[in-house]
Every structure is written in C-alpha cells, then in structure tokens.
Amino acid sequence: MFGLVVRFTLADEQSAAGFDALVGETLPKIRESEPGTLIYAVHHVEGKPLERIFYELYRDRDAFQAHEEQPHVKRFLEERGAFLASTEVDFLDVADQKGVSG
Question: ABM domain location, by residue (predicted)?
C-alpha cells in the first residue's frame, strides 16, 4: 500500500468555501471511478477553520499514479491553488494497518 497526508491551509473564509465546493465536486468522482483508491478522507481541523487534512491510501503506487491521471483530479490540482495559502505533503510507507485490505 501507498499513502499520503496533505495539509492545506486556506487563504481566508471565502477561499475555504470555494475549496470545499471544489472538493465536493471531486470526491464523488474519486469514489465512483477509482477502485485502487482505498481511502480518500477529507478532514476539517477542529479549532482551525482554514485548515483541511486529506488522508489518502492507495492499493499501490500504480493506483496513486492512476488517481493523478484522472480528469477530475487534474481539474482539482489546477484549481485548488486559487484558494490556498500553503500546502504540506507527507508521503507514507504503510508499515502496518487494520481495517483495509487491498
């Protein structure tokens, strides 16, 4: 398995609304068309209204690459910058897990 955690810091409240709308358009397409995407969880951070954390878990690196090549993901990646103050990405090597079989 292959995973990553992304922390997005949004520019302001208006940007947060726009970003959340973009996520709302993208996530159903990930659910519907990406069998190799095992988990794609979007979190609001308690007490930090301008932060979002994504936790993503893929069957393998090939599934991640397939995710990155989807038209809905390319659109998300192109449009998200208009809403962001910063982005941090940590790629994860899954050492052990419970609850997800790939």
Answer: 2-92
Q: What is the pLDDT of residue 100?
A: 56
Cα dist. 82→1, 10, 28, 59, 73 in Å?
Answer: 31, 9, 21, 30, 15
3-state secondary structure of 26: helix
94 has a pLDDT exceeding 90: no
Q: Hey, what domains does the chain have and what are their CATH numbers?
A: 2-93 (3.30.70.100)
C-alpha to C-alpha distance for 75 and 8, rounded to whole angstroms: 17
3-state DSSP call for residue 45?
strand
Neighbours of 94 (CB within 10 A): 12
Residue 79 has a CB neighbour count (10 Å cut-off) of 14
